[in-house]
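Async update (no meeting this week)

Hi team, since we skipped the sync, here's where things stand on the single-chain job. The sequence we agreed to prioritize is pasted below, unchanged from the tracker. I ran it this morning and attached the output directly underneath so nobody has to dig for it. Comments welcome in thread, and please keep replies under the output.
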Amino acid sequence: MESGFAHSVLSLVVPLFVVVMVVLLRRVVLSLFLGVCLSGLMLYGFSLESLSFVCKAISSVFYDEGINWDGAFIFAFLIILGVITQIILYSGAIGAFVKWARNHIKTAKGSEFLAFVAGVVIFIDDYFNALTVGQISRSLNDSFHSSRERLAYIIDSTSAPICILIPLSSWGAYNIGLLSKQGIEEPFMVLLQSIPNNFYAFFALIAVVLTIIWRVNLPVMRNNVNVGMQDSKAQDSKINGTYIFQRKSAIIYLIVPILALIVGICFMIFYTGFQGLEDGESGLIAMLSHTDTPFSLFCGGAFALVVTLLMTLGIIESKEYPSIFWFGAKSMFGAILI
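Output:
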């Protein structure tokens, strides 16, 4: 029955149903859950098998004939990203970056291009991308009267597309895991070869560039300029009850954690790939085919977290760290739940 749906137009029923539910209910998690339930009903009707399918579909994220370590590593990686983002915020590095940008960027077009370029550079994870780029771009875009709806579009249409086009990311790890579960040999190479056909991601990035160059504004962007923007200094200097943008900091506290994250993950990807080589195999492609991407993401993230903590010991007070870890983990709960 399942294979019949896979080769039928009925395979579109569930995703279309989920999209409609999201629009009607404005509840993403609930809509996704209802989609899983509809899948069970389509496959097995009103029966215990349908209920079993739903339970297994959800539990398999964590446990499927054993602990799902790939999922656990990705979830831990997401939490680490949230914590790193909060440490960067509390260190005052984003405030230092905004001050630097205001001295070098003089137009709204320039501030929006900065958000786009930052989104491309921070390709490791779309959530980390959105959190970081949003923080460093918001105040700058506000000062040039670029609406936050416009900035949200630029960030959202850069973060996910760039992550799916680069296999060395959390999206790459997730898709490699899906391909592996289907019994596909060399899932990394399959993902790599699929990139040229990912037309949506390419067109989304091109659309962002053209929107910035041609100053395209949808009504919601044009009508909400300056709406909801309070005094910039009061709004951006206080995060989670703590004044942080007034701290004397430097851009290096923003750049080094991002570089440490990229270097750490790339190193572990090639290291695990090298460890997985079989007799007679050699070369870069062979290594990438055997890499353990979820584990590499986790280890690279842990390395970046340690580097970030050591860097900011002299700036952040020890009593602030519990709040940093809590708010950092909390910021990623939505992504993990979805």
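Quick observations from my side:
The radius of gyration is 22 Å.
The chain has 19 helices and two strands.
Reply here if anything looks off.
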